[in-house]
Amino acid sequence: MAVLNRFAGARAPANFYSSMFNYYALWKAFSSSSLSSEVDLKSTLLSRSSSSRPDLPMDRNVQWVFLGCPGVGKGTYASRLSSLLGVPHIATGDLVREELSSSGPLASQLAEIVSQGKLVSDEIIFDLLSKRLRASEAKGESGFILDGFPRTIRQAEILEGVTDIDLVVNLKLREEALLAKCLGRRICSECGGNYNITCIDIKDKEGRPELYMAPLLPPPNCASKLITRSDDTEAVVKERLRIYKETSQPVEDFYRKRGKLLEFDLPGGIPESWPKLLQALNLEDLNHKQSAAA
Ligand SMILES: Nc1ncnc2c1ncn2[C@@H]1O[C@H](COP(=O)(O)OP(=O)(O)O)[C@@H](O)[C@H]1O
């Protein structure tokens, strides 16, 4: 249970609450460019932390982050782990798409940014994330697995300043597979299920399979309702990959230096990768117990 104890060790460290003033000091460091939405995120996260006050012998749920290039499968694995651990899976890309499909005031601005593969401003992201965290708190949820956030060093610094992240899982996959996986991605317009019609089959020099990922085909009731994300075109995916390398890859180093990064090379599709990921996270027993109870 080494990894789980170290990272998922549910109890907040003893100095977590006494160091809140440091968080405030750190927060103030950003205040020259401070945005009201950042303040919202801070107060939301602090109020979530204070719901497990140190004088109450209460554990808190995991607070994890998933990093990785577009197409790597962050959503797939983060969502499976969130069901296993009983915490919400919060994907900022989903929050952006929900806002986009609403008739809210931000929709047209977001449509333009997303269609070019660019990053949305920190102000908008903090605002969407704060709202989402408040909604989950109102439902009595605690902990989270963040997917797609933080994506810049500034976002990482702000998050680090307002709450304790236990573990950052960095999913990695060969570059050749990423573009193909984005282009093969399909979503059921009715249930929101994620599928992939691409079969990745990369051979080594002797023609042996080096990376094989079977397609993830939809069940018959979703098959006629599949849609493609508007930003999953070749030109936009290439731009998202470029921006990831330039702006988001430094976030890996940020967490590596803090000893929070768990690198995970995907060995193949879900059948090969999921058990290995559970092993790396020391969650095999929990998975077995839940499967047996189901
Ligand atoms: N943390 C973030 N900061 C800025 N923009 C974001 C963030 N998360 C999502 N977005 C916006 O939403 C889009 C879709 O995000 P996501 O679904 O995570 O895509 P990807 O497949 O590229 O990881 C991004 O291209 C970006 O425009």
UniProtKB/TrEMBL annotation:
PROSITE patterns: ADENYLATE_KINASE. Its EC number is 2.7.4.3. The keyword Kinase applies. GO terms for cellular component: cytoplasm; mitochondrion. It is an enzyme of class 2 (transferase). It catalyses: AMP + ATP = 2 ADP. One of its GO terms (molecular function) is AMP kinase activity. InterPro entries: Adenyl_kin_sub, Adenylat/UMP-CMP_kin, Adenylat_kinase_CS, P-loop_NTPase. Belongs to the adenylate kinase family. This is adenylate kinase. It comes from Cucumis sativus (Cucumber).
